Amino acid sequence: MKQSIQLLDLISKEKLDEILQAVNEACGIGSVIADTEGRPISSESNFCTFCKDYCRATTEGRLKCYASDAYGGKMSLNDKEPYVYDCLNAGLVDCATPIIVAGQHIGNLNGGQVLEEAIPMEEAVLRAKSIGVTDLDGYLLALKKIPRVKRSRLRKIVNLMSVITQTISDMALQQILLTLQSKEYLNKLINSVSDCIISVDTDFSIAINNDRCADVFGCPQSAFTGQSLLNFIQDYKILNAYKQNLDQGVQDNFRFELTALTQHKKPFPAQISLSRVNDESGKAVSYVAILRDITEEKRIAKMKEDLVGMLTHDMRNPILAIDRALELLCNGRLGPVSSNQEKILKLAINTNDQLSSMVNAFLDIFRDESGRFELHANYYDIHKIINQCIEEYSLLAEEKELTVSFQQRGQFLKLYCDLFRIKRTISNILANAINYNVIGGSIDISTTVINGRALGLSPCLPETYRQKVVPARSYLWIIISDTGFGVPEAYQETIFEKFFTVQTEEGLGRRGIGLGLAFSKLVVEAHQGFIFCRTPSRSDSKSRSPGVEFHLIIPH
User: How confident is the model over 430-451, as a mean pLDDT?
Assistant: First the structure.
């Protein structure tokens, strides 16, 4: 069926290209806005050589790409969430999210052109031949240059794309509301959507509302019209504040959450997209609010949180039982053990401790997101804590023939901190330094106390942290450096995000579930400190193992 709404009738191609350029700068992927058949509406922005010069260079290949883009949009529409999938042409990992205006699917934002893992050469050759590619060597060479991105990372990108498509949808809907002259047609249009559409004057008096408002607010349309929208908003000061920002020209549109009220003053969570409508002179004549009841979304999110919290909490008991059983064996209470058996048992205890640390990190991150993360601080000797961590990982270090050096100034160095969480933080970074080091490499740990004034002037400290340093305070500065494979500069900030891992072209990377460093950042910042990593200044940037320094700076 032919679409009754065309995206280019509502938003110019230049504006769509501008939006895509912003997507590319933020995400670093190829992207295009296409219609529901997969045919480009915008420019094909930031397309890689492989897709541009090979996959879409033949008639058969371009048609397959169109079909793939259309498929991604359809699946995203069916699933009612962003969709990540293998493209139907070359097998790259792509993603899609639909553009829906007035309840009608009119296009898709497609992106990707990345790989999670290499495609076998035989499969790649068959794909190339199927679309009529004759330059197979060039095809395979271009395929090797496709960047590797974890699917979990791509999901974060497609979530951002979803926000952008919602913005495009809102822009298009606003344009429709501005250009349509027939009130009868306008009523039919806004009554066809599942969200509340409310037009108010400059005093928030409701002028137009759709049928959905009666269901959400429990108020007949005739009674709803003419009332102040503020009567149906519990957090009316928030709504007023966003209106003022619109009037000041801060943005053209705001999307935010607040608590709305039914006719009988029953509260419910709502998401609102608020836009300003101007006359030809630029003066505000009305505002359009698109309101969605998100009660069900909140309920599902709460169920997910409860499930994660329950599973994480319940996993600690069997881990503790395993730990106690291994300690009984290792201590010889159930019979003598040989030295080799003792080494294996200690290795098992260490591994179980790592599993316990992962579960605890997951639980602490969950607590932080739920607003229940609390520190239990006291004064402890940080040198003793570091030495304990080194001892616990000594077997793993010996297996890789690593030299671990700890430069400590003085015998005792007291720190006001949460003992177990600081210890797990140091253990996380030390474990990384061991796991991603080279055979026969080294790990250096140092501690120093520095006053805030000197810290703020240190060229080593990132600019974002200098503004947060308190000159009158003193700080403990811990540096843990290794001679391993390092962290590329492009990832030295994002590596502290949840579920983020680094994978290099050589197959060497920071593996795991990506929670250790996110937990470490949570703990250090909860102590009002800073954590960051950098490539050592002494390193050769072209080296296969330039090493990395992790810096922990905590108020002393």
Answer: 92
